[in-house]
Amino acid sequence: MGRWDYSVFWDEVMKQTKSELGDHEFAMWFNIQYDSSAESTILIRVPSSFYKDQLERQYRRYLENKLFDLMGKRIGVDFIVVKPTPSEDQAMRSQDEYIPPEVAARPRASGKESGTKIKEKHSQLRSDYTFENFVIGDNNGFASNAALAISKNPGTSYNPFLIYGGVGLGKTHLMQSIGNRVWQESPKLKVICITAEEFTNEFIQSIHDKTTQNFKNKYRYVDVLLIDDIHFLQNKLGSQEELFHTFNALYDANKQMVFTCDRPVSELKNLSDRLRSRFERGLNVDLQPPNFETRSAILKKKIEAGRISVPDEVIEIIAKNISTNVRDLEAALTKLIAYAELVHREITLEIAQNQLKDVFSQSKHGNVTIDNILRVVADYFKLSYNDLKGKKRTKNIALPRQIAMYIARDITEYSTTELGFEFGGRDHTTVMHACQKIEERLKLDPNLESTIQSIVRAIKDYSSKA
Ligand code: ADP
Ligand code: MG
Question: Is the pTM for the entire model greater than 0.70?
């Protein structure tokens, strides 16, 4: 790495450009690669002088303005023509799914016929949400394997496939990986990927435009239908009805459906029973927050994909301190890299600790306080807050109190001593004992786990509004 390296900013500019221009225009003009940086310029490789001219005329100012917005200083963009060698060209294409304009302009040929695997990018799928970029870990092993099996034989094994779990745990990524794999491997299959919100809006619009028949045809004749965030359908009875019929048509025709949801289907409210039972019919799997090993592996994968080196000890403190979800993990890493780039320094443990101090302490406690936990647990068991915190030891109070301690130990970073204090001035051994008791019970009582999970969700909900 040279003294100057603005590649992180450049990557961000490319990301924004792509979303602003749309995939088609982006694929047409941005077959370009970061080369190097000098103090006040970035050098970009382009494949021909034709590109160079066009980019200079149409996009240079635009790109420079974007860089200015990001970096707060004027950086020029220069282009250099570097003809890709055939093998590089190939590698680059399969990575970025780039289609040169001359190919994109042709009618779409199936990959097999043209003898290559390069295919136009799917407009609804993010090209980086692939299995290749997804780390299989303790929290998602089963879900990942099911997803891989489905993408090999869509419509045959698990239908529908429903992935649920909290925010930032990889539901969208995993679902889209199925779409991308099918799209690449089976050119003839039609893949649609939308959010439940888009489905709803489009449906309403079609009623308004009197084009519901087109809408129905569009969604009932697909091979793989991916719908993200179906919790959005709560209360939307018209869309539920429409999806119910779509579901039946696809199910009967052995077409694959994949859904994601932020909670188990059983906990969705204002959802028709018949649609609920359809969702529950195939395979429902949950994603959990990743453990330390998986978090480290995810960080390593993200670092591998970039250009900057991050020492192992830094990976370790990030993985240790951010346990909420993968999105937060990524955000911390991005922040650190951007900082190091900006000040032109190698990332060290000290820089990481300083720069991420706030992120770490926020992640530790979030908004979840012991008070919030006590309130939600009391509410759940129809007890009073004071009962739960107080000294009474009757059975109907003792168990909820143990559950509250167990949850507090699980989702906050308080020590048992701190927890004892917060729970009405008890000793830390009381807390440890409570946790052991609940762990034993969890082995015997199959319902307790889901009780605890729904309490935890309620606590997070409550805390995010507090
Ligand atoms: P969700 O849909 O559950 O809210 P996303 O699928 O949007 O979560 O994931 C959040 C971010 O974390 C994305 O950038 C995604 O690529 C990344 N991510 C999640 N799980 C993994 C994983 N196992 N390996 C690599 N990246 C992951
Ligand atoms: Mg999502």
Answer: no
